[in-house]
Each structure stands twice: as structure tokens, then as C-alpha cells.
Design brief:
Order of helices and strands: HEEEEEEEEHHHEHHEEH
Shape: globular
Number of helices: 7
Strand content: 15-25%
CATH architecture of the largest domain: Sandwich
Strand order of the largest sheet: 1-8-3-6
């Protein structure tokens, strides 16, 4: 299934088509989509909203691994033989999630080359981002890590960049766990970014593209 606009594969149109066996579920903010330890039975695709992927230690300490949005998929571990979920998925905003059985998804990836190409491309992009996060963690200051994370949450780099983009409601504690620092440091840098005009709290948190200067500054 190709996009009429530019000829590229449109995963949402394909997965919504009558030939794909799926289930579509609506979630409210803070609803659990799946929990760490649940069996890997489905491949999930975000049609609407934002989803937090997290993992918890035996002592209960939670680490946020990723925040995903429209067009992202998750829960694909079962395709590689993973028996249970290694983390939890929670809706951040009102979300619409499309579930495809793992066996059905494996069949589709085998039969539909355009879908397979799209899946591989998105996995490569995700791996590049994970590598960037690791490099960031070792070599960048907490200020740069926070700026990069805010830009990623605002999805800068997508096809339609705009000067100012909103991000879903997320606590400073959550941001601190995502970049490996303390809430007080996050609070300090958020106030600094606001003072410099890089973020705006009018009608929710909005991130301006000018925040990129913090990431690029040596």
C-alpha cells in the first residue's frame, strides 16, 4: 500500500486494510497497554496518542526507555522469539493502538515486501537513535541530554518540521530518569531554557527548534 502523495509505503493504511487481522483498542492517559512479564503475543502500532515504554528493577525502580508517538510500533520482541515483555507500555495521552497477532505479523512481513522494507527501515532508525542515546549518556552534559530528549519528544526531524511543537505532559522526574540525572537539575535547565526562549509553557509545554543550538554547541 503506497501513499498517494509521494509513493512511499503507508503502514497505517496497510495495517488498517481488510486483509489484516487486527484489534484496535482505545486507552486513556495512564492506562496500561501491557505489563513487564506479560507474554509476547502481539505487535502494536500507534494510530493516535503517545506511549511510554518503561522497565522496572526488582526493587521497583522504574526507568523510562522510550516515549513513542503516532506511526511508531512496539512490542515486536515476540517476532524474534522473546517469550515475555521485557518492559511495560503505558498510554501518556488518549491513545488508539492497533494490535496484530505475532504470527499474523510474521506472515505479513514474509509476504508483503513493502511492509518488510518499512519495518526494517524503522528498526534501523530506532537502533541509530539508541546508539545516539548511549553516546549522549557517556559524552554529553546533562543539559545537552535534556535538550536532545525534548527535541526527540517534540519529534523534530519528522517530515513537517515547525518552529514550535508541543510535547505530551511529562514530569520532571520522568525526564530525569530518561537522561540519568536528578529532578533538581532538570528543573534548573528547564527554567534556563524557558528564560532563553527555547521552550514555552503557554497552553502546555512547547519546544522551539532553537533549542537545537544547545545540542550543537560545543
Amino acid at each position: 500500500m503506497e501513499s498517494k502523495r509521494d509513493g512511499t509505503f503507508n503502514a497505517q493504511v496497510f495495517l488498517n486494510s481488510a486483509g489484516v487481522a487486527k484489534t484496535i483498542v482505545e486507552y486513556r492517559p495512564a492506562d496500561a497497554i501491557f505489563t513487564q512479564g506479560d507474554p509476547c503475543e502481539s505487535f502494536l502500532y500507534i494510530q493516535k496518542g503517545r506511549v511510554k515504554i518503561s522497565t522496572a528493577s526488582r526493587t521497583g525502580r522504574e526507568v523510562i526507555v522510550a516515549v513513542l508517538g503516532v506511526g511508531d510500533f512496539f512490542g515486536e520482541g515476540g517476532l524474534a522469539g522473546q517469550p515475555v515483555r521485557m518492559g511495560s507500555a503505558t498510554a501518556i495521552t488518549r491513545s488508539t493502538i492497533l494490535f496484530v497477532d505475532q504470527n499474523e505479523m510474521a506472515r505479513l512481513l514474509h509476504q508483503e515486501h513493502a511492509l518488510s522494507d518499512w519495518f526494517i527501515a524503522r528498526m534501523l532508525v530506532r537502533n541509530i537513535r539508541i546508539e545516539g542515546d548511549l553516546v549522549d549518556q557517556f559524552f554529553s552534559s546533562s543539559e545537552k541530554r535534556l535538550a536532545r530528549k525534548l527535541l526527540l519528544l517534540a519529534r523534530y526531524g519528522d517530515e513537517h518540521d515547525t518552529p514550535t511543537r508541543p510535547i505530551p505532559t511529562i514530569s520532571q522526574e520522568a525526564l530525569a530518569t530518561m537522561i540519568g540525572t536528578t529532578r533538581s537539575r532538570v528543573n534548573f535547565f528547564m527554567k534556563k531554557f524557558q528564560r532563553l526562549g527555547f521552550i514555552d509553557y503557554t497552553d502546555g509545554l512547547k519546544v522551539k527548534k532553537s533549542l537545537l543550538s544547545v545540542v550543537l554547541h560545543d
